[in-house]
Write a structure and sequence with these properties.
The chain is built from 7 helices and 5 strands. By secondary structure, it is an alpha+beta fold. It has a 3-stranded antiparallel β-sheet. It has a two-stranded antiparallel ribbon with strand order 1-2. The longest helix has 19 residues, at 117-135.
Length: 178
């Protein structure tokens, strides 16, 4: 029933309306079965999913290939399919982009979660624009602070201590408070 409602709520040949609250709920709940399958049947140790994007990290390429086949079968049973353009096995040493971060393997075997440099550049540009608008009286400072706090919270989920220190200084400098 839910899948039928989702399919009928958007007039397109592919995909769903990403802004729909139903999509938000579906992204969390419908793929819950997939989460359980990946953790309990495939025994994935490092598995991350947000909505319809997911990532499994393993040293064993054959295991990942087997996972891909079995996940494809599970999704078919749920009447979903993998995006074949995006779905592949990547090397962590090359870096993997996922949800605004780049996951990279260090020489010591540690996985780093770094904010994508393009996101930082875009946020700096946006902050310059918002602060200028606020200084001219078109936007309350609280709104600019909220925008920065939201980005900062996202960035804090990665290995970003030094980046956050620099961005805090940059933000205060925009306001002339340094």
């Amino acid at each position: 029933m839910v899948c039928r409602i989702l399919r009928e709520q958007y007039e397109g040949n592919k995909g769903y309306n990403p802004g729909s609250q139903l999509i938000q709920i579906a992204g969390i709940s419908i793929l819950d079965k997939l989460d359980h399958f990946v953790k309990e049947q495939l025994h994935a140790k490092l598995y991350i999913r947000y909505m319809d994007d997911f990532l499994i990290i393993s040293h064993d390429r054959e295991y990942l290939q087997r996972c891909m086949v079995e996940i494809r079968e599970q999704l078919t049973q749920l009447d979903f399919e993998l995006n074949e353009k995006k779905t592949r096995i990547y090397s962590l040493s090359d870096g993997i982009e996922f949800l605004g971060f780049i996951y990279r393997l260090t020489d010591t075997g540690k996985v780093l979660k770094l904010v994508r440099p393009e996101n930082v550049k875009r946020k700096r540009k946006k902050l310059r624009r918002l602060v200028a608008k606020s200084k001219r009286g078109y936007l309350p400072r609280e709104k600019v602070d909220e925008s920065y706090a939201a980005w900062r919270n996202h960035a804090s989920k990665g290995n970003s201590y030094n980046l956050l220190q620099k961005m805090d200084a940059y933000y205060l400098d925009l306001w002339g408070e340094q």
